Amino acid sequence: MKLPRSEQETIVIFDVEVGKWHIDTTYPPHVRKYTPAMGEIEEKTQDRLAGWISDEFSGSFMTRKRKTLTDEQRQHVGEQLRKAREL
């Protein structure tokens, strides 16, 4: 049973006492992305994934792809930041 888009979500929590990340997601792309990173799985179905991320996971929880900047673009952004800090 596929969940409606309005009910799909991803919750990521860092537990300080345990020192690990806990993830609970019903968003299909995140279920596929984080399944290989799971150490201790609490629930795994086609529509839901819940559990603890393993210590070996070195990825990020970003949902957008990072822009790849050329050297010129990186220099331009740096100049803009310098100008903004001077104000």
Please describe what this structure looks like.
The chain has 87 residues and is α+β, with helices and mostly antiparallel strands. Helix content is 26%, strand content 28%. The chain is built from two helices and four strands. It has helices at 28-34, 71-86; strands at 10-15, 20-25, 38-44, 49-53. Strands 1-2-4-3 form a four-stranded antiparallel beta sheet, covered by helices on one side. Strand 1 (10-15) and strand 2 (20-25) form a beta hairpin. It starts with 9 loop residues before the first strand and ends with a helix. The mean pLDDT is 87.
Uncertain regions spanning at least 5 consecutive residues: none
Which strand order does the major sheet show?
1-2-4-3
Distance between the termini: 55 Å
Mean pLDDT: 87
What is the number of beta strands?
Answer: 4
